[in-house]
Every structure is written in structure tokens, then in C-alpha cells.
Amino acid sequence: MNTLKFIAKRLLMSAVILFFVALIIYILMRCLPTSYVETIARQKSMQPNSKSFDEWMKQLNAAYGMDKGIIAGFFQWCGNALRGEFGDSWYYTVPVTQKFSETIWLSFVMGAISLVFEMLIAIPLGVIAARKQYSKTDYTISVLALAGISLPTFFFASLLKLLFSVKLGWFDLFGLVGRNYEQLSPWGQLMDKAHHLVLPIITLVVISVGSLMRYTRTNMLEVLNADYIRTARAKGLSERKVVYHHAFRNTLIPLVTIIGGSLPGLFSGALITETLYSIPGIGFTSYNAMVAGDIPFSMFYLTFLAILTLLGNLIADVLYAVVDPRVSIS
Fold it and tell me: What burial class does residue 182 get, using C-beta atoms within 10 Å of its C-beta: 0-12 exposed, 13-18 middle, 19+ buried?
């Protein structure tokens, strides 16, 4: 019962926070120096025997509901959003939810595969570094982790493309499919897409694995220095049993909360990585929409990110209480 009350309370608080976050996002979107409406109005005003730019702006603003004040426009957007009506994308000229559903799952697949590889690499290496503290192995793993944390995404992605695409020619520079995609069998098409996702996934893994590796090492060292670990060693237990049966299980407690909090992020997309590789996921799609001043799609995407953030915090809090019996939710 306490858990249900806690979740209900957090959901209520999240709804209030989401309202104000959406308001800030809407104000920022309305105050942008340029927009899709201005671009279209400018293009139409340059056509022969066309109306002036101001006349087109007035007509298009009325058509898109931009002639209302910011507060009035925001409450109109909220009312439509509560009914599941997010309007049509100005840039993609299709319903916002349709474009979102067409692109979200590609980003989810990339994020899920990257998260699995990140855990398989970071957690074992973090444990090994903690077991062999201040050794050459520890220093090597720490240097690799810090390098991964410090590498900018655009720089590392450019290095991968230079080496594997330009120099070796193993992968295409951009895109999700190759030139002969339409002539391939269904299995060949799947393999072609998988081949084009290799470099983006490597980029996501390398830039993310360092922080989880360092976090695992830090928590493992803290557990290994605990009194009950010294007691287990004093009882004559093998080092392997002490580390993997006693210490590692308690190290997993904070790790589960970190991983649980990152699960909603699988749906947010990787804006920089998708843009650099021209992968048509939700990140790349939202980037094009924001650059074009597409307010309906940008509002939906940014509000969606806010929901994911609030949901991630809730999942992390609940998981911490689930995996650690010493924590009670009240």
C-alpha cells in the first residue's frame, strides 16, 4: 500500500512539473527567431504576382493557430494534447503521431542494443578494476573509461567514418540502407540495415560505457571495504566467492537504479549520433523539425522527453526500494 501511495504521489507531482515544463517549452518555441511559417511566407511572397510577406504571415498564422497569444495558444495546445490531438507536422506534412511512430522504433532498437553492449562491457571491467585496484589493469581500464567519457560524439563519429568508411570502405558514410536495397531479399534488407547501424551503435556504446564503468568500479570498491566483506574473508571464503557472491550482489543495488532510470531514454533517440550518420530515427527527425521551426512536432518531442525524464526518476526510486530491503517507501 505504501508503494502505491508513493507512486500516486510521485505521479501527481510529475503531472504538475510536466505542466510547467511544457509551458516553458511552448514559450521558447513561440519566441524562436525564425519558424516554418516565416519560411513558407517568404517563399510564397517571392512568387510572381503574389501577396506581400506580411499578408502571407497573417494568413498562415491564422491557419496554424499562431495568431493567438502565447498563454491562450498554450492552453489550446494542452486541450488538444489531452484529447490525443497533436496536429500535423509543418515540416513533414503528416500527423505528428504518425511521423513519431514511424521513427521511434528504429531509435529504440539502436538504444536497446547499445545498452546491452554497454552493460556487458562496463560492469565486468568495472568489477575487474576494483578487484585489482592500483594495478596496471586498473589504470588501463580507468584510462579507457576516461577517454570514452571525454570523447565528443561528433569527433569520435568522424574518426570512425574516416577510418572505416573513407579509408577502408567497409561502411557507407551516411544513411540506413544501401544503393541496392530494393533488389535484396527480405533477409538481405534486414542485414543491410544492420550493417549500416554498426558504426552508430559503436559510437553510442563507446561514449556511454565509460561512465557506467567508473560507477561500477567506485561502488565495488566501497563494498569491498565494508566490514562484512572483511568478515567473509576472515572466515576463509575464497576471494572469488567473496567478490562475486557477497560484494557484487550489493554493488548491483545502485547499478539497477541507474540502469532502470536509463530505460525510458531508449525511446528518446540519439539526436547527435543519428544526425551525424543520417539515421532516420526520432533524434534525426526531431532535429530536422526543430531546424525548420516545426512547432507541433518539436512540442510533442520535447514534451515526450520531459515525460521520459520524470518516468525514469520514478522507476529509479521504485527499483531502489525493490532491490534493497533496507529501504522502505513511506
Answer: exposed
